[in-house]
Amino acid sequence: MAKVTVQFTCADCGTTSGRWLGKCPGCGAFGTLVEELHGSAAELASARPAQPVPIGEVSADEAERISTGVSELDRVLGGGIVPASLVLVGGEPGVGKSTLLLTALGAIARSGRRALLVTGEESAAQVSLRAARLGGAEAVEILAETDLDVVCATLESLQPEVCVIDSVQTLHASALGSAPGSVAQVREAAGRLLRVAKESGVATVLVGHVTKDGAVAGPRVLEHLVDCVLQFEGDRYHEHRILRATKNRFGSTNELGVFEMTAAGLVGVPDPSELFGTTHPGEVGAAVACALEGTRPILLEVQALVAPTDLAMPRRVGTGVDPKRMAMIVAVLGRHAGVALASADVFVNVAGGVRIEEPGADLAVALAIASAARGTPVREGLAAFGEIGLTGRLRQASQAERRLEECAKLGIALVVAPEGTTGRGSVRVTPAESLRVAIKAGLDPESAAEAAA
Ligand SMILES: Nc1ncnc2c1ncn2[C@@H]1O[C@H](COP(=O)(O)OP(=O)(O)OP(=O)(O)O)[C@@H](O)[C@H]1O
Ligand SMILES: [Mg+2]
User: Fold this and answer.
1) pLDDT at position 435, please?
2) pTM score, whole prediction
3) How far does the centroid of ligand 1 lie from the alpha carbon of residue 94, in Å?
């Protein structure tokens, strides 16, 4: 007879252990392991072997994606919501998750599909106030409910095409003793909703809270369970918001959506280069990067400050850039390009709260730092892209043509790029084989002569 196993699961990180431990071996938290039963004897005994079928025999008509009516959201999802999929949207409090999803539901309902909003955080009246402010969401059906059984039963009987659960942390299953928002509850809710989504064909969007360090709260299993994880980020004190996919089973995870928060809701920014890619002429320590985010090239202003320091370990602080990559760029600048930074603090910041993760932006970061260190502005109307190698040689960045097109669109006349990149249209390319050459080409020659004199 099959055995019922007892497992102990960490309430913070989901690590499981065969016996109880005072300290979680996964995350090091104390007293977080809780007992769980796995597999009831009756259930396991009745299991019968199933018959697999060859993939070729599975009928799969490419399901049509449901457009959310918000083009930036569609782009990040890979072209719209896939029917019967489960999407998790995470973001800090107040960043605009409810606003974005209500706007999307409104558009979906207007296109003649059945859209349901399950709200556990706000009352129906509060949501209706927001809907009145945003406009166009009158046809969305709303259910203020936190009981998981009721929500699942409603979804099964109503069968809406798209359903938003705001938020998954407020749902609770009465069968479980723990409080709403606990690991067991969140996992149960996600598992049940996944089953309903696949069986009843309801595309479900879960809103999830994030912890202080930015991860989606609750167990990591939640991220494995869903088809798509979207992160909504941005400074609460600036009006720009960035939406990116950290996981997507049906599309690229590199796509980026840019929004602006206005009184009438979130408005997509179709051309973020115009917003983030402009520097002031003659400003020391600012360079324009042409980075590629998914399929979209985007111009971003990179700012740097180099300040003398007495610290034994000078500071390298980067906002919007990977700290390891930045440390590497600073080291290569010192070793191969003659920009000594050993006794200086270096600060780097990317405009608009955007994070660049792509190595193609290396050269612009290096250019901004070199400009700040030498007190010489970068040439006017110049952008840069290219990956920096540890030997000081520049490596070609992917899809150079698309980047150059974007530069031409924004009126950039001159681009410094790795050797082998050829110019197109109105953009003149200065090819550079090494970082040293690229910096010489990128900094304003007149100011450089002045600074040297
Ligand atoms: N009248 C208004 N005019 C402009 N912006 C507004 C207005 N009302 C709300 N906002 C913006 O909407 C944001 C809140 O959006 P929303 O409620 O969608 O966030 P949320 O991510 O769902 O938050 P929570 O996690 O608390 O549910 C606020 O930060 C504010 O910037
Ligand atoms: Mg909300």
Assistant:
1) 93
2) 0.76
3) 5
